[in-house]
Amino acid sequence: MTAMGLWGLARDSAMGNDEVVSRWAALLSLRQLAHLVRHVDAVHGLYYLLLHGWMAVGTSPTAIRVPSVLGMVAAVALVAILARRLTGSGWAALFAGLITALTPSISYYAQTARSYAFVFACVVAETLVLLHAMQAEADGAPRAQLRRRWLAYGALVVLAGYLNEMSLLVLAAHLVTVLLARQGRQTVKHWAVTSAVCVVLVAPLLAISYRQDHALSWVSRPGLRDVWILYHDYFGATIWAPVLLAVCAAVAVLAARGSGAQAEAAWWRGGGVSVASVAAPLLFVPAALLLAESLIGPPLYVDRYVLYGEAGAALLAGAGIYRIGQWLAGRPGRLRRPAIVWIPGVAVCVLALVLQFGAQQRTRQPGSRLYNFGGPAFLIGTHARPGDGVLFFGDFYRKVELGYPNEFRNASDLALAVSPAVANPFKGIDKPFSAVAPLMLAHDRIWVLGRRPSVSLPAGPLRAESAVLLHNFSMTFVRGYRGMWLTLWARH
Fold first, then answer.
1. What's the pLDDT score for residue 341?
2. Is 50 exceeded by the pLDDT of residue 74?
3. Would you state the pLDDT for residue 9?
4. Coil, strand, or helix at residue 475?
5. Where are the alpha helices (DSSP H) in 212-239?
6. DSSP readout, 418-467?
């Protein structure tokens, strides 16, 4: 995962929407950051605070992605450790870890300056600690030891919750695992009390983010296409790689057994803990809950909010590959077991790399994110002359200036009245058109970033500014970027 994380990490210093926000927020003073958390973006507040401290190491786009790489490296290692605990096999652990590292969505978020890699690592860690706590319950461990393990579990749940509150959905998956284990009321009680306390501790964040629901106004109700995208997030890009891994995962589910006295019973009937009873709920339950909520209530579903479900897919696929190897090694007339049990796993992992290599390359392109803010910023920085003006059509695209302020050293923001750091974060407050128009006419050249100027735009400042440009200026340059246009206008 380290190699996959560092490969193409710079991306020509291009940043998308989320990364621009992360970098800008992390560079705010603590007072300004507190204002941002209280009024606009509480969900990512802890991550912004952690990144604020990291800024002492470096502030470049490459530098701010390094924590995400480290978080995903930890997540992959924890997936392997969890697979080893569930299967008892080092091979299954290796295959599960490799499958996770080779999944393009994992590389994508490992190289994105956002909290999702940390959430992934925390969820896998709390799942591992949950198994330790359940084992201690089954062994009749002393009360002090039980308390320590449940406290560790709770601490990880709270940490993940403050990194992203959607991680609390994993508690439903853990409840399924606990119930399937059939260890008795005491285990269920301890899990329930710990989980309830965790939810209470995260409640302040839930309350603040509820008041900031406008931040998710862009989220639409999910459909079948969203389920299809999530399938590829979990099992891989292209067509054949996810099919191959899904078949391996199905083998693990069908072959899984319980533990203890009921080891020969199916995992959903026999009790105990198995790779299926842990991984299948992790794979299905959080995503299903968020999808269902978004269909019947205010839509909140975004695939990256439940990215950690990929751990369930990797655990099942790794265990399934190992099970296939065991089956082949156990057949009469085959080679010695050590010489064949690992062959299916190596073959599948090589295929996962080869079949998805193109997708891995695309995630490392400057335009791989929804908005490429770096391209237009660097062009303005190179070609803007002292005294140039700049307009953002509309104020969403001001994030280009937030992400790359040094590139606008020669261009003044004609419409900005109040800085985003002081007023409405991310956008700022614009001047009325009556104040902008004279400034436009006082400039010989104006850069326009965002929507292309047109009198067909909806009534408002942008259409009025478009009219001024079309009547008094000539467009001398135009270039399209993913999600926006950059144009240059010169006075007649």
1. 80
2. yes
3. 95
4. strand
5. 224-235
6. E-TTTSSTTT-EEPPHHHHHHHHHT-SEEEEEESPP-TTSPTTHHHHHHH
